[in-house]
Amino acid sequence: MMTSTRSQASVQHFIRLEEAGDHRPCEKGPWLRHSSQPVYENPWISLRHEEVTTPTGTSGIYGKLHFKHVAVGVIPVDAEGYTWLVKQYRYALEQDSWEIPEGGCPEAEDGLEQEGLLECAKRELKEETGLSADKWTELLRLHTSNSVTDEWAVIYIAENLTEGEPEPDEFEELEIRRLPLQQAIDMAMSGEITDAMSLAGLFKLALMQADR
Question: Bigger pLDDT: 132 or 22?
Fold first, then answer.
C-alpha cells in the first residue's frame, strides 16, 4: 500500500541493501531462525531473506515482507444510511478497485506510528472524499496477509459527517461514489469489491447491523 503522505511520493530512489543481516534466533514461536538478511528496501517496504528450521524440524527459507506504514481504512456512514466508496487503479493488480477510503500511517524509527492512527484515518477520509466526521468508532483490526507479512490494519466507522472538497495526492486518480451502505455490502457479497480491508470492514458492519 502506498502512503498518502505527499513527501513520500518524491523521496529517495529505491535502494538495495548489502550489509550483513540479523543472525539472532527467532524469540517467539516454534520456528528457529538461523539468519536474516536484508534483500530490498524502499520508502514503503522492506524485504528480508531468512534461513529457518520449521516446526517439523526441516530446514527452509522464508521471505518476510515488512510494511513501513500501518494501514488505515474508514467506512463513513451518514444520517441517511449512505456510505462512500473510492475507485482507483491498483498498479500491482493492473485493474481498478472499489474500496473504502484507505491509506497508510507512517512508522517512526521505533516502529510506532508517527501520528495517531485516528488522525491518519481522519486525514485519509478528508483527502479521498472531502468528508470530515465528528464521531469516530474503531471497528476492527486485522492482519492483511499473515503468511508473508507482518502488516496490520485498523478500520474505523465515521459518522456525523460534513461534506467538503476531496484533496487527493498528486499520484491518485479517484472516482468517488456515494451509495446506500447496503449497496456497498452487496458489492462485497457479489465479488465486485475484492479489497481485503474493505471486505472485512463491510462484512463486520453488516453483522453488527443484523444483531441490532
Answer: 132
Contact between 86 and 176 (Cβ < 8 Å): yes
Q: What is the SS3 string spanning 151-209? A: CEEEEEEEEEEECCCCCCCCCCCCEEEEEEHHHHHHHHHHCCCCCHHHHHHHHHHHHHH
Handedness of CA 4, 5, 11, 17 (dihedral sign): negative
Per the listing, cell 452487496 goes with 186
Phi, psi of 169 (to 5 degrees): -70, 165
Handedness of CA 17, 22, 27, 32 (dihedral sign): positive
| Cell 516446526 -> residue | 55
Same domain, 86 and 117: yes
Q: Does one domain contain both 142 and 73?
A: yes
- Whose cell is 502506498? That residue is 2
Write down the pTM of the prediction: 0.82
Average pLDDT value for residue range 93-101: 97
Q: Are 88 and 154 part of one and the same domain?
A: yes
Of 47, 88, 48, 65, the C-alpha closest to 149 is 65
Q: Are residues 44 and 127 in the same domain?
A: no
